[in-house]
Write a structure and sequence with these properties.
The protein is of the alpha+beta class and 209 residues long. It is elongated and about 85 Å long.
């Protein structure tokens, strides 16, 4: 009897992997590199935050110093005011001249020129309201009539029922400001006028003709 033939053994063929295998050392190096990059990014952010905090702190210090200087100046030289007209003395022209006298006492450079005009008169129930406009500009030889100016508006209230010896009520505010002031309470600052002029110049430059 014929013996059954044994099937030949199949040889295992090893397939070489041509791809790149990442060793454990390479993985650790990549991880370390990522960690170092994160550390660098955090350091950069911390430095930027420190710079921002430093800039804010310096700005606050400058504001405090400026406020302290203004306080010392105010304490050394009192805020100027005028003795305002009474109800019995009041006329529209007298009040206009007194407002002009008051603003002329404000500390500013001689280059500023101002004029005071009566804008309107309103008859309210128990009083008359007069609105005056004081306008400043800086004329030069090249531009004797400047294109922009800064203004302050004075609101004068004359009560119909108050005694003649009582002073009139006077308030004012600068152009572009919401703060309404009373004469003799806040010291005038020249940079208020400069800021108004500069803002108008910037606005005109943004819309070229």
């Amino acid at each position: 009897m014929d013996r059954p033939r044994k099937s030949p053994k199949k040889k295992k063929v090893k397939i070489k992997d041509n791809g790149f295998k990442t060793s454990s050392k390479t993985k650790m190096a990549t991880k370390d590199k990522g960690t170092s990059m994160d550390t660098v990014d955090k350091n950069v952010i911390m430095q930027q935050d420190q710079r921002s905090v430093t800039e804010i702190a310096l700005a606050l210090v400058e504001e405090v110093i400026a406020a302290a200087v203004e306080f010392i100046q105010d304490s050394q030289s009192p805020i100027k005011n005028v003795k305002w007209l009474t109800h019995g003395e009041f006329t529209a022209e007298r009040c206009r001249r007194q407002i002009h006298k008051y603003v002329s006492s404000w500390e500013s450079e001689d280059r500023w020129v101002c004029c005071t005009t009566l804008v309107r008169r309103d008859d309210i129930v128990h009083s008359f309201r007069y609105i005056y406009c004081v306008r400043w500009s800086v004329p030069t030889a090249l531009k004797p009539m400047p294109r922009v100016s800064a203004a302050a508006f004075f609101i004068v209230k004359v009560n119909k029922r108050k005694p003649p010896e009582m002073p009139i009520d006077v308030k004012y505010f600068l152009e572009g400001q919401a703060l309404v002031q009373r004469p003799g309470t806040i010291r005038f600052r020249e940079h208020w006028l400069r800021e108004i002029i500069e803002t108008k110049h910037q606005l005109m430059e943004s819309f070229p003709i």
